[in-house]
Amino acid sequence: MSGWDSLYNTSWLKSKHIGRLKVGAGPPFPWRIRVKNQVLKELREIVILSLPVLSGYGAVGIAFGMVAVSAGLSWWLILLMSLCIYAGALQLIAIPWMIQGLSLPTMFVMSLLVSARQMMYGLSMFPYFSDMGKAKGYMIFSLTDETYALLVTQGDHPLFQKRWTRLVLSFLNQSYWVMGSMLGVYLGSTVGRDLVGMEFSLIALFASLLLDAWEKKDNRVMILYGLLVTWLSLMFFGPRWFLLPAMAVLVVMSWLKEGRNNSC
Amino acid sequence: MLSEDQYFMLAILVVAIANGFTRAFPFLLEKQSGQMQRVLSVLGRSLPPAMMAMLLVYGLRDVRFLDGHYGIPEITSLMLLVLVHRFLKKPLLGILASTVLYMLWMNVVFG
Questions:
Q1: ipTM of this model?
Q2: Same domain for A101 and A232?
Q3: Distance (Å, rounded) from C-alpha B21 to C-alpha B28?
Q4: Which residues of B fall within a CB distance of 8 Å from A55?
């Protein structure tokens, strides 16, 4: 899988760390407190499991909040974005769209394409979501790259046999994201007001996702096409109109590529 | 006409719906035929890497390589990102370090 699931390497979750935190000699302070209550114990386990997401969402959320506030969006709009959209790369790239006043249909299509990588995630979530009842809607809505990565790698953890633990995990992850972006709003409107260049974090984020995708040999052709087609489109149509033509060509190209693979 | 806040709220709603749709896609197609599922898997497999490449170019669309800063801040920061990502295997640190380097360029050197 390309994308954030490998951006934040969660392999340490599987390793000795969890065991050490649970029983070993010197766990950090909060985990040394004896907890009798079973629910509290499980809650603590979920928090430990979600700690890498806290660091990832904290950092990217702060970047998002700072960029958004310096672009001139008010704090409640930024809060609304983190509550209703809840997608790192998409939220960052939607800031310039909103500031430029992009038309709503265009914005819809571009959002679909930017988020296209998430279309496969749900497929491996059927066993974990099918018994969620009324919470299933929220589970699907909150299926971000990180939550997906956690559930894929940790879904068979005995902890997640209970339904509420999965819901709490998803909810915790979104709360990290919301808190991160609000902290970013605060930092952006106080310390970071005169700093320029925060918006480079968006470019760095895409470059990082791209490096991850590059690891898989099968992706490389489409990455090169993507770079070439978009650059040509930029030359032809100029910086304001180049995105949609490039997207159209790339959708057709990925279609053709898959068609060739399938017929073999 | 929409006021600016109304436009922003509608825009957020539109982006949220599109994003939620991609997440719900497999669940919407759960009971559908194989034809639609093939469409899904085609778009989900080879489109994302192309989109990432496109978004990188999009992010760099205003960089001037022939005058101005000659793209030096962008190129050096991205090189730092690649180094940290590939050799230290710390993607998040790479994003952080390259952003800090870029901000140093823009605030201190070219500020």
A1: 0.85
A2: no
A3: 9
A4: 92
Q: Are residues A182 and A255 in the same domain?
A: no
Co-location of A32 and A113 in the same domain: yes
Judge whether B99 and A197 are in contact, CB under 8 Å: yes
C-alpha–C-alpha distance, residues A42 and B94, integer Å:
33
Going by pLDDT thresholds of 50, 70 and 90, the confidence category of residue A85 is: very high
In angstroms, the separation between the Cα of residue A14 and the nearest Cα of chain B is: 18
In a domain, B66, yes or no: yes
In a domain, B41, yes or no: no
Say what the pTM is: 0.78
Which range, of A14-23, A132-141, B9-18, averages the lowest pLDDT?
A14-23
Q: Tokens in use for B56?
A: 């990188």
Q: Which two tokens stand for residue A10?
A: 């969660």
CA separation, residue A11 to residues A123, A155, A169, A179 (Å): 22, 14, 18, 25
Query: Distance (Å, rounded) from C-alpha A170 to C-alpha B42?
Result: 28
In 3D space, the residue among B66, B73, B64, B61 whose CA is nearest the CA of residue B102 turns out to be B73
CB spacing of A223 vs B55 below 8 angstroms: no
Residue B55 belongs to a domain: no
Which residue in A has a C-alpha nearest to residue B77's C-alpha? A204
- The answer to whether position A210 is within a domain reads no
Q: How many domains does chain A have?
A: 2
* Residues 6 or more apart in contact with residue A74 via CB below 8 angstroms: none
Residues of chain B neighbouring A56 (CB-CB closer than 8 A) = 92
Give residue A108's domain range.
4-194
Mean pLDDT of A132-143: 92
Which residues constitute the domain of residue B71?
A: 62-111
Q: What is the mean pLDDT of chain B?
A: 87
Residues 6+ apart with CB under 8 A from A5: A145, A146, A148, A149, A152
For chain B, how many structural domains are there in total?
A: 1
Q: Is position A135 within any domain?
A: yes
Task: Specify if B29 maps to a domain.
Answer: no
Q: What is the pLDDT of residues A55-79, one digit of tens each?
A: 888 888 998 999 999 999 999 999 9
Q: Do both A117 and A227 map to the same domain?
A: no
